[in-house]
Amino acid sequence: MLKEYTVTYRSDNVYENWVHDAYWQFLILPLENTTQELLDTDFSNSIHAINQFSINGFGFNTIKVHPKKRFKQISFEAIFKVLKSENKEIKNVSESENKKSLEEINTLEFKINFERFLKSTRLTLLPKLETPLFQFNTNASLFENLKLLNNWVHVFLKYSPGVTDITTTLDKVLLQKSGVCQDFAHLFCAVCRKNGIPSRYVSGYLNHESGYLGDSQMHAWTEAYLPHYGWLGFDPTNNVLTNSNHIKVSHGKDFNDCSPLKGVVYSQGTHKTSHSVVVKSQQQQIQQ
Amino acid sequence: MLARVANNLFWMGRYIERSEHIARYMNVNYFSSLDAPNQISQDRQFVLRSMLFMVGEPEKDANKVLIEEDVLYKIGLDPNFSSSILNNVKYARENANSARDLISTELYESINKFYHFVLNYPREIFVKSGLHDFTTNVTEMSAILRGKIRGTLLHDSVYAIIMMGVNIERATQITRIINSKYNDALLAQGSYEDAFTKSFEWTTLLKCAESYDMMRRYYKKTPTSISTLEFLILNPNCPRSVMNSLNQFYKHVKILNPERRYNKESTAFLIGRVRAEYEYKYIEEIEKDIKSFIGKILKSLDEISNKVDEEFFNY
Amino acid sequence: MSNIENQIFSSYQRNPDLYDEIYDGEGNIKDIYQKLFDIYGGHSIQDYINLNSKAKASFFNQGITFQVYGEDNVQEKIFPFDLFPRIIDTEEWEIIEQGSIQRAKALNLFLWDIYHDKKILKDKIVPLELITSSANYLDQMNGVNPPGGIYNHISGTDIIKHKDGKYYVLEDNIRCPSGVSYVICNRTALKRALFGVFNHYQTHTVTDYAENLLEQLESVKPKGVDIPNCVVITPGMYNSAFYEHSYLAKTMGVELVEGRDLFVENDFVYMKTIKGPQKVDVIYRRIDDAFLDPLEFRPDSALGVPGLFSAYKKGNVTLANAPGTGVADDKAVYTYMPEIIKYYLDEEPILNNVHTYHCSRPDELEYVLANIPELVIKPVDEAGGYGISIGNRLSEKEIEEVRKQVKENPRKYVAQPIMSLSVHPTYIDDSESFEQRHVDLRTFTILGKDKEFVLKGGLTRVALKKGNLIVNSSQGGGSKDTWVLKKQ
User: Fold this and answer.
1) Assuming Cys at both sites, which of A58, A155, B292, C478 could form a disulfide with C80, CB separation 3.0 to 4.6 Å?
2) Does domain A95-258 have CATH number 3.10.620.30?
3) C29 touching chain A per CB within 8 A
């Protein structure tokens, strides 16, 4: 079963004074992979500067904009059409298979290969605590444990927009026990890595018509790597495995690797910026 | 050549030229006032006010008594006054620093020595007894720099840009000096019968522009308002005249952009236009309204400088 | 010429516990120094003082200066320069040269490996933590193939001679090593002041550095470029090494650019010239990784070029040195250099490494904490000689303080036995005579595509404060001209 989505990303920027030089990089293009296909991309800006398609340091497609003339106001609008298929159902592996996985993740080779997604960053650093936050159940499989972790994060943190921002570290999040999707994702990654399971922060779009939690911005979830399975998507904000409502854009160690918009703007004075994301499903179901 | 570095070279030329003119203005005015033929021209307050007027900081309070040492320090060595000679030389060196890889070692070394000379000149000595020594050294060192610019750089675009800066600044400073001395001549008139046209200030003006000897040789008469202005503004053979500076500027801008095609957006076109206007001016026309003429010429020079910025340095 | 007695060396005091570069074991002047010793001795003190002050003025007038940042002012200082040169004979130089190349090559292979297959980690030669915990490891460099396979195009190797008479490497600098311009300026100054001495020695030239550097930069040009446009990028004229940046640009005949002179369009790099944009192919960069590209690294960097890294990754521009080299000149990696050399080159290290204790290893930490007075304690990621504690110089209280710091953050520190740097006669202004001062040597190694070059000379740095072991210019160090003698 396939779903077609139209994703609209908008960013409006107003500056107090003339901007003489600026350079932006957008990391907002839906990724192409086995479950999603990018049918159409339409990116425009209000001052008709040229859009340059480029690949960033982590290998993701970006759009760069470098206006040639001064301006005080600029808006960007991207409209993507994405075809999304349902993930395959994930089955539990046998006990012996699970044991093999456990052995594998403890090998040096595995730790070296997944080094990037095992080390903690400023945003995924767990504070030193006397009792661990969440303990893996040795009787359950790794996959079961990840589902339990997903549920634990979902229950432990209260979803409340505005209480954190993109620089909030986990010690604060844990103290106030609330946050938004980034904080849920950072916490999930941190606990995973602590237990030797590679995990990565994912940035993307969420279909709100599904009734899931998230605001009108880009959404964040996670992926964890298990031998035998490969990378598996978890959305701790909504306590679900990722599905056809999750449209992935990029992944990285934490938010900083996935920031949807980075820019260098040479201007004095204040400015106002707003972003919005709208995801609409076409409702038409295409037969395979 | 990098646009930013070209901008640095242009301003290096301007600051070198500017510090020379300020130094000479101080020197000539101060020392010729000591035995000036009339009371006003001899008055120390009058001279100090004239110096402040020339550097663009006129004293507005007519009753204020200026303290000589303070004024000399401010214009010469004050690090907090952006138009002081010290700061002009400092800016010249900073601009040279940014373009250091493009200018000759010899030129850089001379600028650097110049800077350290000014920087280390003792304040006490300068305001009490060093005015002549200091200003003479500044003018001589700028002459050395001019020599190094001409003699140790390839006469290509680097040289052309520096010369554009030097010449636009020279035209500007000469005009500013004319403006100051015109103002002084107006103030000083009345003490002698034919005061304004034969004012002592015209001689001072010519000396400020190092043009007194040339002028005497050319006119063979005591300078008057008409002959002085004609010489310093319109005479294309006087190396300090506005006309000559414009001609030089034109010559060097052609090295940067040798295009002969009609292009009304180019610097060469604009300078050609301004030049043509003065080529067919006669001095009586100017003398009628010197004030607005000076205003107009400064405006033209400003426009030319902006045009250079737009055509070559803007990025 | 009646002056037989050697005036300026008459009061020279030789401490027999230190290795003096100009004396042999029996206390006689070494053959290679004899002539120099005689010539200098022929000058009166006053003569020498005059020569010395002229040489200093020449540096100052040429603006060969650096800035020292004080609490509220910036001072312009010349890099103190000593007119008595250091001589390295042909045999010793061969060891230094081969050793420097060997290290540079090994480090280059190490960098390739840790940004690709990571075999050295998998073979357990170097621990994984060394990489994961390094702030200088750039994830973005994983899988990137720099043109010509070169990461550390320019390496600066800090070498000392210990009292056992052997050379030891103290540090490899493969980010943006500086100092090479001083090598050339020192030579120029010495030639001007005492040209006569050169008649008695066959000394290798040092002026061929820029030529070799340019050749190397051109050799690593991006694919498809015929005649590459090379530039030097500097943080700007307020950087302490700005003189060097402009010197190198000038002698190579290439543009010296700042970040704001460059821009990236469709993953190509251009510079803004008076005739419009001009494409740039190879950048010798003298700004740190973190500041290269605000879109990839530090977002507040005003020194870098937005989009530069994408252009680099796409292979449209070469950066020298490559981003991410800093991971390999970490003091913790240094301690594995003998193993790294053996692993990649299957060779024994030519230059010695100083034995290093890793505070991250519990047993070694224990040793370090118990023996601080006999050790030098260094933070692993500080440059410029900052944060170094020399055990036998510390008071009880300071030792306690260091112990506490190390205990709290063992991974941050390594410790080494206190090395005794050799000394060299150095003219001291205050006493108006020659005194023994500690020296080291920084060599400059260039790796290009099928090309290796070590500048035959290098920078001999002198710790001018009596008894001081730290030679960095920011800590009051000076330098000497360094002569490498030609084969007779």
Assistant:
1) C478
2) yes
3) no
C-alpha to C-alpha distance for C214 and C210, rounded to whole angstroms: 6
Backbone φ, ψ for residue C350 (5° rounding): -80, -40
CB contact under 8 A, C258 and B116: no
Angle at A168 between CA A163 and CA A169, to 5 degrees: 130
This complex has an ipTM of 0.92
Closest CA to B10 of B86, B99, B140, B81: B99
Reading the block at residue A236, the tokens are 């701790």
Give contacts of B1 with chain C, Cβ < 8 Å.
Answer: 255, 273-274
Pairing of strands C282-285, C230-233: parallel
**Which residue among C236, C260, C274 sits closest to B1, beta carbon to beta carbon?**
C274
Chain B nearest CA to C272, separation (Å): 6
Continuous H helices in C232-316: 242-252, 308-313
Query: Which residue on chain C is closest to B7 by alpha carbon?
Result: C274
Please answer yes or no on whether B2 and C260 come within 8 Å at the CB atom. Answer: no
Min distance A32 CA to chain C CA atoms (Å)? 20
Supply the Cα-derived Rg of chain A in whole angstroms: 20
* Cα nearest neighbour of B107 on chain C: C62
Closest C-alpha to A143, from A90, A186, A85: A90
User: Which chains are within 8 Å of B by 3+ CB pairs?
Assistant: C
> Tokens 């009345």 sit at which residue?
B190
Residues in chain C with CB shorter than 8 Å from the CB of B109 are: 61-63
Q: How many helices (H) and strands (E) does chain C have?
A: 13, 22
Confidence of residue A287 (pLDDT cuts 50, 70, 90): very low
Asked if CATH classification 2.60.40.2250 holds for the domain at A2-85+259-281, the reply, yes or no, is yes
**In angstroms, rounded to a whole number, what is the distance separating the alpha carbons of residues A56 and A233?**
23
Q: Which residue would you say has higher pLDDT here, B187 or A60?
A: A60
For residue C273 the two structure tokens come to 């010239």
Q: How close A3 gets to chain C, by Cα (Å)?
A: 33
Chain A residues with CB-CB distance to C316 below 8 A: none
In chain A, domain spans: 2-85+259-281, 95-258
By the 8 A CB rule, do C127 and C384 touch?
no
Task: State residue C180 phi and psi, 5-degree precision.
Answer: -65, -30
Tokens 């224990």 found at? C366
Token pair for B55: 């550097």
Which of C120, C310, C317 to mutate to test binding with chain A, by most A CBs within 10 Å of its CB?
C310
- Note if the bond before B63 is cis, omega within 30 degrees: no
Predicted pLDDT at C471: 72
Question: pLDDT of B98-139, one tens digit each?
Answer: 999 999 999 999 999 999 999 999 999 999 999 999 999 999
For the record, the structure tokens of A13 come out as 């920027």
Q: Supply the DSSP symbol for B40.
A: H
User: pLDDT per residue over C329-350, tens digit each?
Assistant: 887 788 899 999 999 999 999 9
Distance CA C440, CA C358 (A): 24
Please name which of C136, C260, C143 lies closest in space to residue A57, comparing C-alpha atoms: C143
pLDDT at residue C2, rounded to an integer: 36
Helix (H, G, I), strand (E, B) or coil at A255: helix
- The alpha-carbon gap from C342 to the nearest alpha carbon of chain A, in Å, equals 22
pLDDT in tens, C147-179: 999 999 999 999 999 988 899 999 999 999 999
Which residues of chain C make contact with B98, given a CB cutoff of 8 A?
236-237
Reply yes or no on whether the pLDDT at A74 is more than 90.
yes
Q: Spell out which residues of chain A touch residue C265, defining contact as CB-CB under 8 Å.
A: 52, 66
Contact call for residues B208 and B180 (beta carbons, < 8 A) = no
> C interface mutation test: which of B101, B109, B110, B257 has the most C CBs within 10 A?
B101
Read off the amino acid at residue C352: N
